[in-house]
Amino acid sequence: MKVVDPHVHLWDLEVVPLPWLMPAGEAYSGDNRKLPRRYTDRELLAGAGDIEVLKIVNVEANPSDALAETRWLQSLAARDGYPQGIVAMLDLSRDDAATQLAALAETPNLRGIRQILNVHADPRYDYVGRHYLNEPQWRANLRLLARYGLSFDLQIYPSQATLAADVAAGHPDTLFILDHAGMCVDRDRAGQREWREGLRRLAACENVVAKISGLAMFDHHWTSASLRPYVLETIEAFGASRCLFASNFPIDGLHSSYGALWHAYAEIVAGASASEHAALFVGNAERCYRI
């Protein structure tokens, strides 16, 4: 089974500290104390089982130093060829965001930027406690990405989808890649409805695609049956040509082996055509991240 994995987190805590893992603790996504202190492409490939990982995209892991993380990742690429794509962290609310972006853009494998935007009333799920999407300076700096041909990984909750769709519509020259199928965090009937409606608002923007990943963060004892509604609803909203399967390893590795996750995806979309399967598992990731 051949895949391009467009959402992995490689790190070495001895090289680039990750404050949220030092010290590690319990989180909604699992027990971070069980995560490795070093996880590079070599560890990922060694644990891939029967999955042939053609290419990977590393998405920033909320490091203490974004430039140091990006340069370290590029050194891995120089050594092993992986990661083929890098999505770096950048706080677009900063006055010096343009200078920071110019420095990051010197990295050959840089393909995009992510700034985590999740806001939630429950402190357990709240990441930033601040509505960056509403801030004029943040929006103005977002326009800088088009100058470098970079995408933006959009990590939000369903309650933020309407505002995010407005931002995407206002930045038509930037590709927005929705992380983790829109992160359906509230799973009662109202939360499910809000998530479905949010997906469709975002899908109405032609410059938004959806990454199907991170589902185990909210479903620690998942099965193919429990993942199926989230996978199929996302594909129904965006279409097979605008969805990308991804692993979110090693985070989702707290609740799954690498191979089991990919085989679950394949089981869920077993009815897809050969061209749709190739797009979901390989081609869309290559196109969206230009790798």
Tell me what you see in this structure.
It contains ten helices and twelve strands. It is an alpha/beta fold. It has one domain: Metal-dependent hydrolases (TIM Barrel), CATH 3.20.20. The strands form three sheets. The protein has an eight-stranded parallel β-sheet with strand order 1-6-7-8-9-10-11-12. Helix 2 (66-80) links the parallel strand 6 (52-59) and strand 7 (85-89). Helix 6 packs parallel to helix 7. The two termini are 19 Å apart.
Brief rundown of the structure:
The chain is α/β, with parallel strands linked by helices and 291 residues long.
Identify the notable features of this structure and list them briefly:
two-stranded antiparallel sheet, alpha/beta
How are the SSEs placed, and which strands pair?
Elements: E1 2-8, E2 11-12, E3 26-27, E4 30-31, E5 38-39, H1 41-46, E6 52-59, H2 66-80, E7 85-89, H3 97-104, E8 110-114, H4 136-142, H5 144-148, E9 151-154, H6 161-170, E10 176-178, H7 189-203, E11 208-212, H8 224-238, E12 243-245, H9 258-268, H10 274-289
Parallel strand pairs: 1-6, 6-7, 7-8, 8-9, 9-10, 10-11, 11-12
Antiparallel strand pairs: 2-5, 3-4
Helix pairs in contact: 6-7, 7-8, 8-9
Largest pleated sheet: 8 strands, parallel
Helicity range of the residues? 25-40%
- CATH homology-level superfamily: Metal-dependent hydrolases
Strand order, sheet with most strands: 1-6-7-8-9-10-11-12
